[in-house]
Amino acid sequence: MASTLQPGPSAPGPDSRQLKPLYKELLYTIMHKLGKPSSADTFSDEQLRNYVMESFLMSESEHRSLVEKVQNSDPPVYCLMATVKEAKGILGKDITGFSDPYCLLTILEDEKESRTRSSRDKPRKSVVKDAAADENIYSTDIKKQTLNPVWNQTFILEFEDHEGASFHLEMWDKDEELSLAQKLEDFKTNFNSLRRMIKDATKEKGSDDFLGKIVLKLQGNVPWKGELSSEGQVLLELYATQNNLSPFLQDLGKWVVYSQLYQSLEVDSSVLFHQITSIEYHWHQQELPHQQKRELGDSLHGFLRYGLHLVSKYRDIFPPTATATPRLHTLLRVLVQICKTKAFQKLNPAQLELQEEVADAV
After folding, report:
1. pLDDT over 50 (residue 84)
2. In terms of CB atoms within 10 Å, which of 63, 66, 321, 355 comes out highest?
């Protein structure tokens, strides 16, 4: 006798007690938004709360009660993970011609930085030591007697609010107090260090030398599209006029700078496309001096290799999102345009098949 399988009872759906913790987490996420979603659409907090309420079939009274609980909860502690990797070709501040570099890292509110700078008798580039409390400053190891320090140290910086705040990294040369005998020995072995020795003698004891800094906004960063401040644009135009720089040389200078910046900062690649198009136009109108030809050829070839390196890692650098995919397309357009230009074909006579190079990179 054949038996008939009867369907078992359907699995019960989650009740409100299971949903409320997740609901509160989503409300908390909306209240303390951080990061930049890949979607081109923008939504207000109210739109997101209404969406969550409808998705969870939450009543108005339950929603208000949970919103109130979330509003009374502690705000999040924001964290930024920063890795200090290396530096190359830094200034030599010691009488030996080398430095003992270390880096200081912190997060400062923009308002606090402004107050610190305005309170000084004379302007200085550094700000971290004066504006941040000691417990909020993170320091790398000191690398002895080098111009190419390697640290590879990672730090997790905690801060309360990302609105109007910036990440600061400053590099300093540690001032080691040497005995007179040591200084005389260094002087005898390196006569060219006289100027540094005189400078050290007039410097306040124990004061380190400032080497450089990086400042990054924690929110609102978008790819730079090459715009300059009004003052900067005026100065560039005046300089070009006074030094008789042709439009070709001006565009060449912009291309060299922008292509280098693209390798270290978030620069909109459409800026590069515009510059390489301008260079191709001028190439047929004006002959470049030998030095500028060489500089242009090296720059085009170097950027092409860098672009192919990015393409080889496209899965990590250009994930399939609404913002990353157009960036990959624009970069590929720039690489194609470089290979098509008469300037590149003339200055790099080796026949380069971009399609094959891209295929090899991928």
Report:
1. yes
2. 66
The b/e string for 307-332 (b: 16+ C-beta within 10 A; e otherwise) is bbebbeebeeebeeeeeeeebbebbb
Distances (CA, A) of 276 to 45, 69, 348: 42, 56, 15
Instruction: For residue range 29-83, list pLDDT tens digits in order.
Output: 888 877 666 666 778 888 889 998 998 889 999 999 999 999 999 888 888 889 9
Please list the residues that pair with 81 across neighbouring strands. Answer: 156
**Other Cβ atoms within 10 Å of 246 Cβ, number:** 13
d(CA 140, CA 126): 17
The amino acid at residue 179 is: S
Instruction: Report the pLDDT value the prediction gives residue 10, as an integer from 0 to 100.
Output: 42
User: What is d(CA 282, CA 286) in angstroms, rounded to the nearest whole number?
Assistant: 6
Six-digit token string for 35 = 């990061």
pLDDT digit string (tens) for 126-140? Answer: 788 888 888 889 999
Per-residue pLDDT tens digits for 89-145: 999 988 888 999 999 999 988 777 777 777 766 667 778 888 888 888 999 999 999
Burial 265-293 (b: 16+ CB within 10 A, else e): eebbbbbbbbbbebbbebbeeeebeeeee
99: number of Cβ within 10 Å: 26
